[in-house]
Design goal:
Strand content: 15-25%
Domain Winged helix DNA-binding: 16-94
CATH architecture: Orthogonal Bundle
Distance between the termini: 9 Å
Number of helices: 4
Structural class: alpha+beta
Order of helices and strands: HEHHEEH
Protein name: Transcriptional regulator
Largest sheet: 3 strands, antiparallel
CATH superfamily: Winged helix-like DNA-binding domain superfamily/Winged helix DNA-binding domain
Number of domains: 1
Number of strands: 3
Radius of gyration: 15 Å
Length: 100
């Protein structure tokens, strides 16, 4: 039986975006530096992926200063949580249906 991959969300095909969403799905929020260090990314790489996820409405950011240093916090949106859960469920279903 062939399995339809239509429920796999292309936004999460990148391992970086999958990592960002995984971190934010289990934490209320995470700051830029924490995510960068956990995923071993460059500033530019993380910035481009978070921007893409923000444009899709899956995450949101807030900027503040802590002392004199800028701090960007990210959190998952309700839409992002739903989309990510559906993606994980689709992956699980795909894996369950791979028996020959």
């Amino acid at each position: 039986m062939k399995y339809n991959l239509e429920h796999i969300n292309k936004a999460f095909e990148s391992k970086v975006r999958l990592g960002i969403m995984s971190i934010l799905a289990v934490n209320e929020s995470a700051d830029f530096t924490t995510i960068k260090n956990l995923l071993n990314l460059t500033d530019g790489n993380l910035a481009s992926h978070t921007r893409s996820l923000e444009e899709l409405g899956y995450i949101c950011s807030s900027k503040q200063f802590i002392g004199r240093k800028p701090n960007t916090q990210f959190s998952i949106t309700p839409e992002g949580r739903k989309a990510f859960a559906e993606h994980i469920r689709a992956l699980e279903d795909f894996l369950k249906n791979q028996k020959l």
